[in-house]
Design goal:
single chain; alpha+beta; two-stranded antiparallel sheet; globular
Length: 297
Amino acid sequence: MAAENEIQVHSEDSALAERAAALAIAEVQRIEAKYSRYRADSVVSRINANAGRVSVPVDQETRALLAYADTCWRQSDGAFDATSGVLRRAWDFKGARVPGDAELAALAACVGWERVEVGPEGVRLRDRGMELDFGGFGKEYAVDRAALVLREAGIASALVDLAGDIMVVGSQPDGTPWRVGVRHPRDRSRIVATLAIESGAIATSGDYERFIEVDGVRHCHVLDPRTGRSARGFQSVTVHAASCLVAGSATTVAMVMGEARGLEWLESFELAYLAVTAAGRVVDRFSDKIQAHSRTS
């Protein structure tokens, strides 16, 4: 997945730990092979190659992920759109060029989740040039699946970390919560907070991994599907949820919505989060919500 990944497995049975870890790694590799747009033989690539033409048969797993993407699109008023990957054609984060309005407008014609047709025969993208891109939730789904494989293998204590998207299985071996550091978005050597989690997943989106600065303005890789422009309002957003799929998509939606609407949206779903605004203000709704959950559970 073009990133540093780690799986920690704790067990008194070393053979069990190694076997479980191998199964979890294989599951991550399976998902990448199935949904990566960089592989011509993936489900996503087959759907994209037939855009504007015919439906492509898909299995139940793929249908479930598309249904989730549809829910995200509806609940975010279009801030999450799995057809927006085409916008990457205009953005080169290795250079220092910001695309113009005409360039983005041409690609915007290829963005529109409402034109994804899911029927009995399979999935069809209504117009040529459209693309599905699972980049906004595929890795998070892989985190969840790897954690499930570990549980099913009999592991009671583990941590799955795919490029900073994390799911824990049980507590640490000594019974204490896992401690996850949230990197400072403007200083790699510092952390904003250390979060204690005993269950569930943590995901972070930010404007600091892939970005360019032009004329004093930072443009990050988190793009608004509705405008094609970079997200504004946050340096980073970290969310805790029962699944990494939910946590990851929630951070993306909040980043795209911006500070005022994004915080309101996170609160409306009662998600535990820690956000750093564009001005550097830290908004911590993680500790209170996690503690409240612990008291009532």
